[in-house]
């Protein structure tokens, strides 16, 4: 007897789109689906404007990062960028049928410093756009603005504020990191919505705000968990290499050995 | 071997492992942005990237399916980012502090 009900495998919209052979977002046809902002979501003037903002920030970061990098921390910066690239490949399930991935902005900023984080994030996003077709090429400026400028800037700002308010302990640093990493994700998402208002397509904005805000609050929890796990591991073995924990080592370094050169933590 | 180098090598191995093996287990569901675009109806405004013809497009090798091409693409990406970001950081670094002796 033939089965009357054919069980169909559950398919996502993206799967169907791939099968129809009219993939708009190339990455959705593959197992790895990082998905940054593609070309076309925002119009050309908005893309150019974010490109100018991103280029200006990167130019400033090239000068400012000098103070954050020395012979010990420069190799860590390259490694952390590579790790962020790898971690971004791992889309984790969020709500039913949705996924999110690490941005890594706060991880970079706390570990190697905010200006170095801007540079590292820019390298990651450019490699993804140019080699892996993840995120549009015209949209590189937009993606750098969202993840390299807003997520790093707001995330590190929140981290600094909380670090000052919390106890000068490892737990204090990790708590500040958790909140900062969490907030960096909806901040980037809402910045995208802001750009979408200016240069996006003509769809009702209410649902865009609700969808982007809601799902990225959930993704932010994943971001915060991964960031704290990685930073906690580095703090456990080499707290002296963590840019955002300089205030911890100054206390212990004074007791055990000669203090760090003044201003090294800035 | 200094602990700094140990940490660096451990970190590199972890990054290679995450990109090369961890990516097998990545969720293929649309991410937050793509999902939002689908829900609210602007997903069809996305255009194919001009680099869509890249041999590594979509984190695979020449469009091949399966785990190995994904691993190869991931490892190449890790090495590429490490080379570019590492070189950039090394060039940008300050030179005024004396090298730590003995560590």
Automatic annotation (TrEMBL), chain A:
It is a multi-pass membrane protein. Gene3D superfamilies: 1.10.1760.20. GO terms for cellular component: plasma membrane. The keyword Transmembrane helix applies. It is found in: Cell membrane. The chain crosses the membrane at residues 76-94, 106-131, 137-159, 171-197, 217-237. Pfam families: CbiM. InterPro entries: CbiM/NikMN. This is Cobalt/nickel transport system permease protein. Keywords: Cell membrane, Membrane, Transmembrane, Transmembrane helix, Transport. GO terms for biological process: transition metal ion transport.
Automatic annotation (TrEMBL), chain B:
It comes from the Bacteria. Pfam families: PDGLE. It is found in: Cell membrane. GO terms for cellular component: plasma membrane. Signal peptide: none annotated. The keyword Membrane applies. This is Cobalt/nickel transport protein. The lineage of its organism: Bacteria, Bacillati, Actinomycetota, Actinomycetes, Geodermatophilales. The chain crosses the membrane at residues 72-92. Keywords: Cell membrane, Membrane, Transmembrane, Transmembrane helix. Residues 5-94 form the PDGLE domain. Its main location: membrane. The keyword Coiled coil does not apply.
């Amino acid at each position: 007897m033939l089965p009357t009900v054919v069980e169909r495998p559950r398919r996502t919209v993206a799967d169907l789109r791939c099968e129809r052979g009219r993939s708009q977002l190339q990455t959705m046809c593959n197992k790895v689906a990082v998905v940054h902002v593609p070309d076309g979501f925002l119009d050309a003037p908005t893309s150019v404007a974010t490109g100018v903002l991103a280029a200006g920030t990167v130019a400033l970061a090239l000068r400012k990062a000098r103070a954050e990098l020395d012979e010990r921390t420069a190799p860590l910066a390259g490694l952390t960028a590579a790790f962020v690239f790898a971690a971004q490949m791992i889309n984790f399930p969020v709500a039913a049928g949705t996924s999110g991935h690490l941005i890594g902005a706060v991880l970079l900023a706390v570990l190697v410093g905010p200006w170095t984080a801007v540079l590292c994030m820019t390298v990651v996003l450019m490699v993804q756009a140019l080699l892996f077709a993840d995120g549009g090429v015209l949209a590189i400026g937009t993606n750098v603005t969202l993840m390299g400028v807003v997520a790093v800037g707001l995330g590190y700002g929140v981290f600094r504020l909380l670090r000052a308010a919390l106890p000068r302990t490892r737990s204090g640093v990790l708590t500040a990191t958790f909140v900062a990493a969490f907030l960096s994700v909806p901040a980037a998402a809402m910045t995208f919505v802001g750009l979408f208002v200016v240069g996006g397509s003509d769809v009702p904005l209410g649902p865009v705000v609700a969808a982007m805000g809601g799902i990225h609050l959930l993704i932010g929890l994943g971001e915060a968990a991964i960031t704290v796990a990685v930073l906690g591991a580095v703090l456990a073995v080499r707290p002296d290499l963590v840019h955002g924990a300089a205030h911890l080592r100054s206390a212990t370094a004074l007791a055990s050995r000669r203090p760090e050169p003044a201003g090294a933590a800035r | 071997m200094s602990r700094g180098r140990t940490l660096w090598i451990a970190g590199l191995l972890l990054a290679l492992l995450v990109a090369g093996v961890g990516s097998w287990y990545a969720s293929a569901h649309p991410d937050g942005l793509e999902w939002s675009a689908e829900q609210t109806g602007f997903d069809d405004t996305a255009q194919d990237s001009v680099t869509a013809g890249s041999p590594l497009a979509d984190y695979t090798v020449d469009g091949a399916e399966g785990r190995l091409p994904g691993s190869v693409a991931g490892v190449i990406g890790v090495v590429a980012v490490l080379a570019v970001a590492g070189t950039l950081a090394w060039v940008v670094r300050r030179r005024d502090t004396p090298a730590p002796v003995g560590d």
